[in-house]
Amino acid sequence: MAVATALPRLLPRRGHNLAWHPSWKRTPARLSHGQRRTESSKASPEPNDNDTQAQGEAIPVPNTIATTPLWQRLGPLTRAAESYGRSQRKRPYWTQFCTTLVIYLCADISAQSMGGEEYAPERTGRSFMIGALSSIPSYKWFIFLSQNFNYGSRMLSLGVKVAINQAFFTPLFNSYFFGMQALLAGEGLGQVAERIRRTVPTSVVNSCKLWPAVTAFSFTFIPMEYRSVFAGVIAVGWQTYLSFLNRRAEEAEAAEAKVEVDESPVEGVLVSTPTRPRTLPRTHNRTRRHASNSSSSSSSSSSSSTSKATDSLLVARAKTVLYGSAIAGSVYLAYLYATDTRASFHRWLVPPLIRAFFPDAEDAHHAGTTALKTLYALGLHPRERDASLASDPALAVEVFGTTLSNPIGISAGLDKHADIPDPLFALGPAVVEVGGCTPFPQEGNPRPRVFRVVGLHGMVNRFGLNSRGADAMARTLRERLRIFARSLGLSESQVLDGEAGVNPGSLAPGKLLAVQMAKNKRTDERDVHAVAADYVYCVRALARYADILVVNVSSPNTPGLRDLQAVGPLTTLLSAVVDEARKTDRKTKPKVMVKVSPDEDEDMQMEGIVQAVCASGVDGVIVGNTTKRRTGVVPDGVKLTSREQKALMEEGGYSGPAMFDRTLDLVSRYRKMLDARTLHHSAAGEAPASGEKQAAARDDPEQKVIFATGGITNGEQALRVLNAGASVAMVYTGLTYGGSGTITRMKGEMKKALSNV
């Protein structure tokens, strides 16, 4: 009865997990207008009793009814604008690229029509090239401008933004615009520089007549997704106006030149006087005309050949510049595509090629790790370019006091030595787990020790926790931290204490770095204190550089390791790790989680683990690891080749999609057990007899966090484990078969599923 009474009081205080699960189960991601109004009214402050009695039910009056903006009442135009806004949010770069091409096309057609000359398609081609190369940098500049220089005073913010835009972007863009115009027209570098010198100062001065007001209006009234269109329309109008002024100036100059030609004397052509002018007047006339024609034809022939030579040179230069620009543009577009995790070849081409070139799975693993590390150093690594997924509030979740950008993580094993945490974060997860790491270096089991089961998209491994040792991993993580600190002009201790505004492990906002630890193979698992000393050694070396410390007691490839999941040894071990983690020399201490086996699935075994977790003060559980079992792994109707059957029967831990149902069941059961024990201890005020620290941890009503790993390969499965009680869904084998776009694809599937609720 005490538990039931305490339940309503405890649930509202646990924001990071219990608030998450109902939001996925029962709260639609997209509410109707009436639902939003109801929800907002619930969240708003309650009126006092006197107001309620005096006013009764509130009566809407014109002053209290929000008016619908004009642009939302334009019928088809409104729908078109909303469609464009959705496209801009979903694929900002492609939408911006296409928008820029349309704007430059309109501006060029307007300018040419005002010029009064015959339409020149090559000029339009130059405009397309100039717009294509500048579209993404310009977009990024204005994103940067909108996200920075924001102060308490709106007028100060707008003034600084306008001043910076006029001082930096306008001269740079005008130099690029006029320089590219000259370059694509075939002019030499000297002529290009001269044209920039003559035109840019005047253009910058002229831009001050209009663009400060446009910039201020855009940042004040125009939503982010429509600013490019708004600025483009103004630019087309401005270009048309300038072309009109140029046309008038040219017509005035032509009229003045015509008057000067009409008033100047005509110079005659000197010819020899014939000896018999009277008898040969016609011959004389013909001779004079012939001489005159010969002279003019000779002159015109010479000028024509010179003109043709000049034209040929200009055409050759123009072609060279045009082809070079086209190649440069193509390379840039190829770079954007190849480094985008949404690119289909990351899924359908790269994984099969890796399997073809590296028959041994461990060789493929090392090749992939080396490739990611090298590409990241060169800035050519795959990354999540979909800004709408990277910062979608619908996918955000709070874990350990950090608001994660999404609930997807990468399990340990992919980055065993912490060589590539940053390239892995670039793929889109909010949590990356590196390791496992042992106190001292060890080779692991003999090779071959990794085997693919391609027909099941599964894998069997018996690495045996090969590790370079805790000290080596600590050096790697510390060097990474120092490079980050130097880039910000901060010290190492300032970054560790959070002064950089990021978590000290992930070094990125909205992300967490987990470091997995394990005992050395040679340490006797029967000596619990020796085993605890192994883990404590790892904590002392690595805790400063981790957001989460993961205690691995579930690897099937280290003899006796899973025996540590019994209540007594596990409580002793976890308590030692928690105590040492709390001594970490930094402002915020790392959280501690324990990784448990999927094979320990009997109620008694799970209850023992839960008891140890709650007694030791561990912050959470990672449910799942590879399994020794092979029953139920092969679905009905799936036939494996003899090679795949042999690989499946190899000794070691199996991972793959067939593990999902077991993971889902375990997450649900662990969630219920952990919540029941936490609520029971909080309501009864019980304390274990193992010490004051453990008592304080056990009395803490904070709900234990669960990460789920095992068989999760798509967004629908991720949602199911989240609904079952996990805070983060982790992937590993699915990433090796699905390629570097797996996490982006999963988040897109989750977002789509939520929007259809």
Q: Unreliable stretches, pLDDT < 50, 5 or more residues?
A: 1-68, 266-300, 686-700
Basic shape: elongated
CATH level 3 topology of the domain at 393-633 and 640-682 and 702-755: TIM Barrel
Helix content bin = 55-70%
Which band does the percent of strand residues land in? 5-15%
Largest sheet: 8 strands, parallel, barrel
Structural class: alpha/beta
CATH homologous superfamily caption of the domain at 393-633 and 640-682 and 702-755: Aldolase class I
Enumerate the strands of the largest sheet in spatial order, edge to edge or round the barrel. Answer: 3-4-7-8-9-10-12-13
The second-level CATH architecture of the domain at 393-633 and 640-682 and 702-755 is Alpha-Beta Barrel
Number of separate strands: 13
Number of helices: 28
Radius of gyration: 36 Å
Q: How much is the average pLDDT? A: 79
CATH class of the domain at 393-633 and 640-682 and 702-755: Alpha Beta
Cα separation of the termini: 37 Å
Keywords:
TIM Barrel, 8-stranded parallel beta barrel, 3-stranded antiparallel beta sheet, 8% strand, elongated, disordered N terminus, transmembrane, flavoprotein
Explain the overall architecture.
Belongs to the peroxisomal membrane protein PXMP2/4 family. GO terms for molecular function: dihydroorotate dehydrogenase activity. Its main location: membrane. It is found in: Membrane. With 757 residues, the protein is α/β, with parallel strands linked by helices. Among the domains are: 183 residues, no CATH class; 338 residues, Aldolase class I (TIM Barrel). Helix content is 57%, strand content 8%. The chain is built from 28 helices and 13 strands. The chain has an 8-stranded parallel barrel with strand order 3-4-7-8-9-10-12-13, surrounded by 5 helices. A 3-stranded antiparallel β-sheet has the order 5-6-11, with helices on one face. A hairpin with a 2-residue loop joins strand 1 and strand 2. The longest helix is centred in the middle third of the chain and has 58 residues. It starts with a helix and ends with a helix.
